[in-house]
Amino acid sequence: MTKTPSATCTSRFSGTALRLALLGATSLSLFAGDIAWAQTSNGDAEPAARASADTDAETEADARLRRLGVVTVSARRREESLKDAPVAITAVSSETLDQYAVTDFTDIATLVPNLVMGRAASGSSSNIFLRGVGSSTLNAGFDQSVSINIDGLPMSRGREIGLSQYDIEQVEVLKGPQALFFGKNATGGLISVTTKDPTDTFEAGIKGGYGFEAEEYYGEGFISGPLTDTLKARFAFRYSDREGPFENTAAQTYLNPLGFERHRNSEKRGFKEDLSGRLTVQWEPSDVFDLELKLGASSTEDGGPTDLIERICGGGRTTPATANGIPPSPNADCRIDGRSDSSTIPVEVANANYRYTKSDGSMYADLDSKFGILTGAANLGAIEATSITSYYEFKQTDQNNVAGEAYPSTFTQLADFNQWSEELRFQTQFDGPLNFLFGGFLSESEFIFNTDAYIFPVPIDPATQTYTTFKRDNGFDASTYSVFAEGTWSFLPKWELAAGARWSRDERDSYQESLPAHSAFAAAFPAGIRLDDDFSDENISPQVTLRYQPTSNISLYGAYKEGFKSGGFNISQTLTPASSVEAGEYDSETAKGFEAGIRSVLFDGSLSFNATVYDYLYEDLQVQKFDPVTVGQIVDNAGELSTTGAEFDFTYIPDALEGLTLRGALAYNKAEYADYIGQCYGGQTIAQGCDELFNADTGAYTSQDYNGRTPPKAPEWAGRVGGTYEFPVSGNLKAQISTDVSYSSEYNFTDTLRPDAVQDAYAKWDAAFRLINDQQGWEVALIGKNLTDELVANTANDIPFSGGTGTGTTSGVVSDMSTFIENPMEVFLEFQLHF
C-alpha cells in the first residue's frame, strides 16, 4: 500500500516504517555482533565496527533533516523528500501543529504566509484565499478555488474549515493550480491533510488543556497498535467546550419595534462545543496487497458564524446607521474591539413558520459530518495500483443575525451535502528511465441549500402565519469525471522531465424555488418562481515539469501548469419575475502559468533553504457581490487576475549552540485585476468610482472599473520568523522554548474593494514553553497564540438597509459592514501523557 507521508522523515522511514527499520537495525546489529565475535577470534573486528558507525551516522543525519523540516511529502502522490519535490509547497509537521495547539484550519493559516482563511455566515460559510486567489464566501454553488483533501478524500465546499483537526501526521499546502494528483482539479491551490496511521506496537496517549481567554476545556486521546499479525487499528478523539473569547454587549432584554422581547444570545460570543472521533484499520495480509479503512464523525454546536462579527460603520460614521427608520442599539459600536451586540430573535417569530430556528430564537450553528475512506493498494512488481473510495456528508442548520440586537437582519439555513468518489491510480515501477502514472476519477454529489430570512419587523401574516420575509429552496446535483496521465523520464543521471494532463468533465443540475412567505413582501419576493439549470463543461489541464539535481541535496525545477474549476449556476440570487437562468449562470474558471524553484540542504546539513518564483494568469475568476437592498448575491466572472511573486523559507541549526533551531519564511505577491468591469458596492457614488454601465431605467450607474486593482485578501508581503531552543534541565527532564512572529501587510477584505474595508498591516506573536520527560512519557506546556492580540478582519458584507442607497449617483449613502474577525489572543495550559 502507498503509505501516507510522515511529518518528520525524509524517506520511507515514517511511523510504522521507522519502527520496522529500527527493529531491522537491531537484528542486523545482533547478527553483526556474531560476525564481530568470530572475526575477533581471528583478530579482525574492524568491518563490524565500521558498520555500526555507519548506522549511527545515518540515524543522526535523519534526525538532523527532521529538525530542518526536510520531511517526506506526497505532493505528486508518491513519497519523496521535500528537498526533491518539484512543487511549490509548505509542509507543516505534527510537531509544529502541537507546538502551538493548532486544531483548526484558521490557525493553520497563521503558519503559512499568504494564506487567508476564516468563517463566514452564508454561502460556503468560509473564505479561503492563497496568493490572493480564492472564492467568494457568499455563493453556496461555487466550488472553492483552494480546495481541501483529507487522506485522499476531496472536499471543495468550504465548510470543512469548521471541522476539528487532531491526531494529524502532516499538512501540506500546495500553491498554484493543482490538476494532476488529487482527484478534483483546483485553480488556486490545495490543502492536503494526512492523519496518523496505526502503529506496529501498542501506543496510547491523552492530552488535556485549558484556554484562559475563551474559558475553554479540551481533551484528546488515541489508542493504537496491532490486533493480529496482519491487522492494526487506531482510534483517536477530541472534545472541546468553550465559553467564547469575545464580549457580548447586548442587553439582557431588548424590545423590537413590535414590542417583542429579544434577549442576549449568550454571555460571551464565540462559544463552541465539539466532539470528533476517527477509527483507522489497516489490513496487510501480504507484501503484495493491503487495505486501509478510515471512518470519522464530528458534531459541532456554536453560536454561528455571526458570533464572530464586528460592526464597521460606513462612510466614516462613528455611530451605526438607522435601518428602515429603526434606530441602532446603544450597545453597538463602530470599532473592531472584540465587543459586539448579539441577541436572539423574538420567540414569537422563531416559532411562526420560520424553518431551522430554535424555539428560544437563539443564534446558533449545528454542523454534523461523517466520512469513510477505503484505500486499497496492490504491488504487482512492475506496477502499483491504488484505489481510493470515499464517502463524505455534512449537514448544517443555523440561524444568524448580521445587524445586532436592534434590526432583525436574520436568516436561517439548511446546508445538506453528500458526496461519494472513486479514484483509481496506477504507478509503474520500471528499472529504466521512463515511468508512468495514470488513472481516473469519478465523483457524484448532491447539495441542498435552503434559506428563510426575517429582515423586516412587521406584524404576523394572518394567511401564512409567519413573519418571514422570504423563503427559498435551492440546490444541485453534480457529477465529475476525469482521466489523467503523466510520464516521467530520467533522461540523464541528474535530469528528470515529467509531462501529463487531466481531462475533466463537470455536469451540474441546479435549481432555485421561492416559497410563500409574508404577503407584505409578495411583490419584492414573490413565491412560486422556479429556475432550473443544466450546466456542463470540459477541460484539459496540462502540466510539464523539468527538474535538475546537481547533488543529492540540491534540486532546481521549472514548471508550466494549468488548472480548471467548473462554472455553474448561482443558487444564492434573489428570485423575482425578472430572474432568468441565463443571468444566474457563471463561466468556468481557469488558470495557467509558470513557476520555478530551488530546494536545498546546505553547509553539511545545517541549513535548508527553499525559494519559488511564479507567474500565473486566472481567466474568468468566479466572483460575487452582496446586494443589501435585494438581499441577494450577484455572480460575475472577472476577466483576468494575474499573480506574480516569490516565496522563500529557511531552517538553520547553528552548531555553536546545541538544541537551537531558527526558521523563517517570506512571501511577496503582486495580484492584479485586468479586463474586469464589476459591481459597485452599496451606496458607492460616481465620484467614488461607480461610473460604469449607465442604467437608463434607474438613472444610475451599476458598475466600477477593477482594472489594475489588487483583489481582496491579497497582502503584498507576508512572512513568519522564529525559533525553538531545547535544553536539558535535570536528569531526564528537558525544556523547550518556542517563539514565532507572523506578519502580513495590508489588504482589502471585501469583494467590492470598499475603501473603508482595509485590514492594516499586523504582526501576531506566538510563544510556548514546555517541560518534557521522554522517559516517563509526559510533558506540560504553556502556549500563547496571538499574544499581540491582533483582531484581524478577513471578510465583510454590507448590512442590509443600513445605507446602501443611491448607488451610482451623486448622493449615495454607503452601508455599515458586518465584519468577520480571526481568533484573538489565547493562552493555554496543556498536559500530555504517552504510554
Topology:
Layout: H1 16-41, H2 46-67, E1 72-73, E2 80-81, E3 89-93, H3 94-99, H4 105-111, E4 115-119, E5 126-130, E6 133-134, E7 146-150, E8 153-155, E9 168-175, E10 189-195, E11 203-211, E12 216-226, E13 231-242, E14 246-248, E15 253-255, E16 261-263, E17 268-269, E18 272-283, E19 289-302, E20 309-312, E21 339-340, H5 347-350, E22 364-379, E23 383-401, E24 410-428, E25 434-454, E26 470-492, E27 495-515, E28 530-551, E29 554-565, E30 568-569, H6 581-584, E31 585-586, E32 589-602, E33 607-627, E34 632-652, E35 660-674, E36 677-679, E37 692-695, E38 700-705, E39 717-730, E40 733-744, E41 747-748, E42 758-759, E43 762-773, E44 778-785, E45 793-798, E46 817-821, E47 826-834
Parallel strand pairs: 7-10, 14-21
Antiparallel strand pairs: 1-2, 3-9, 4-5, 5-6, 7-8, 9-10, 11-12, 11-47, 12-13, 13-18, 14-17, 15-16, 18-19, 19-22, 20-46, 22-23, 23-24, 24-25, 25-26, 26-27, 27-28, 28-29, 29-32, 30-31, 32-33, 33-34, 34-35, 35-39, 36-38, 37-38, 39-40, 40-43, 41-42, 43-44, 44-47, 45-46
